[in-house]
Structure formats: structure tokens, C-alpha cells
Specification:
Elements (H helix, E strand, L loop, with lengths): L1 H15 L5 H12 L3 E5 L6 H11 L11 E6 L5 E2 L5 E2 L3 E2 L8 E4 L5 H5 L2 H11 L4 E5 L2 H8 L6 E2 L6 H7 L4 E2 L7 E4 L2 E4 L4 H14 L1 H11 L6
Length: 228
């Protein structure tokens, strides 16, 4: 009984203190350091490569060893999400408290209809796209961009074999032949076939945002040349 009382007392002390959550500290630091903010959207069943690739590419330091971007995961709630492959992640911030982004990355899942029917996620994409310098859709993430209406009149590509479905679902966008196009850039929207091609799309954006030298540096760190 004493142990229960002590535990309850300790919990009450913790609750009474103004303890700042880690994600809030991270958000505050992003406002202070002034680096561009890159938010990678996650949801249940996300495809890991399409989250790993931008994390891998944009978190690499420059030749002076300094970070160039704030990179964080954003989701509908601060709760663990499990990827299609079984990777468990906890986002840094929810979609309500997320700061205005310079780059929004939208991955996909094996059930994109579930995400396109999530009005909260779609509103978040619409809101952020109004502020971003770039918005990215990997694989079936293109369907979320289509649902948000931000790709109307834009050339966009999706997963291999998905172009016709994308065009039928969203006739106002310009779906590109996914058997020919791996990465497509049209204005501030970049799209890719997803999977490992997400690395190519992320590197293309890195070059636009940080220059060719940084892209070369990151490619060397990632040993991209070993894959050719």
C-alpha cells in the first residue's frame, strides 16, 4: 500500500510540474535556429523507404559538419505508427501544432484510399502547401496530393503501373507515364515512383535547396556510386 501511495505522489508531482515534451522542445529549437523546416508525414502502414530516404538525405551535415535543415516526423497524433515493413516510429509533432514547413514530404502506404479519405491529413497537406517552397509525393503519395487539389494542372508521377488510376481519379492533374518517368518536378511539386527512387527524388530536391556540392557530398556518404 505504501508503494502505491508513493507512486501516486510522485506521479502527482510530475503532473504538477510544467514539464515540456521533447517534441515541443524540438519545435521551439527549430524556431530559434532559423534552418529550413522539413516535415515528413507518417501514418499507419507508411512505406519505410519513402520516409527513410528524405531522413537520410536531408539530415546529413555540410562539409563544415553543420546541419542544413530541421527534419522531423509529423503525424495526426503523437503515438507510435508502424510501417508496412514493421518499423515503429513516434512522430515529433502532430499536424495541429506543426510549424509552417519549407518542404513537406508525403509518402504512401499499400492502402492509399485510407489516407485520401482522411480529411484531417488532406487539410494539413493543403495548408502546408500554401507555405512550402516544395511539396513532395512519393509513390501513391501522389494520390494524396491529387485529393488535396494541389497538383491540378501539374505533371506528376506515381508508383509503377499507377498512372492510369491516378489520372482517372484526379483528371485535373497531368499524370506522367510511370514506365518512363522516375522523378518529375513541376513548379514546387516533386513526385517519384517511391521505394528506392525516393532517394533520387530527395537528392534532386537537396540540390535545389542546398546546391550541387551538398548533393555530391551526400551521395558520397550514402555510397550511391556502389549501386550503379
Amino acid at each position: 500500500m505504501k508503494l502505491i501511495v508513493i507512486a501516486a505522489y510522485c506521479l502527482a508531482i510530475l503532473v504538477s510540474q510544467n514539464i515540456t515534451p521533447k517534441n515541443q522542445i524540438k519545435m521551439e529549437n527549430q524556431e530559434i535556429n532559423g534552418l529550413p523546416k522539413i516535415g515528413i508525414l507518417v501514418f499507419e502502414g507508411f512505406l519505410a523507404n519513402e520516409v527513410d530516404a528524405p531522413l537520410d538525405v536531408f539530415t546529413k551535415a555540410n562539409k563544415e559538419g553543420k546541419p542544413l535543415f530541421n527534419v522531423f516526423l509529423v503525424a495526426e497524433e503523437i503515438t507510435p505508427y508502424i510501417s508496412e515493413e514493421g518499423l515503429i516510429v513516434v512522430p515529433d509533432v502532430n499536424i495541429v501544432e506543426c510549424l509552417d514547413l519549407d518542404l513537406l514530404v508525403v509518402p504512401s502506404s499499400m492502402t492509399p484510399d485510407k489516407e485520401t479519405q482522411n480529411s484531417a491529413l488532406i487539410r494539413f497537406i493543403q495548408k502546408q502547401h500554401n507555405k512550402t517552397d516544395y511539396t513532395t509525393g512519393h509513390c501513391a503519395g501522389a494520390f494524396l496530393l491529387g485529393e488535396a487539389g494541389i497538383a491540378d494542372g501539374k505533371q506528376i508521377v506515381t508508383y509503377c503501373g499507377g498512372s492510369q488510376s491516378l489520372q482517372l481519379d484526379y483528371p485535373s492533374l497531368l499524370a506522367q507515364d510511370d514506365s518512363v518517368n522516375s522523378v518529375v518536378m513541376d513548379g514546387k511539386i516533386m513526385s517519384s515512383n517511391g521505394n528506392l527512387v525516393s532517394y533520387l527524388g530527395s537528392l534532386d530536391l537537396l540540390e535545389k535547396m542546398a546546391g550541387k556540392e551538398q548533393r555530391t557530398l551526400v551521395e558520397e556518404e550514402l555510397l550511391i556510386h556502389k549501386l550503379k
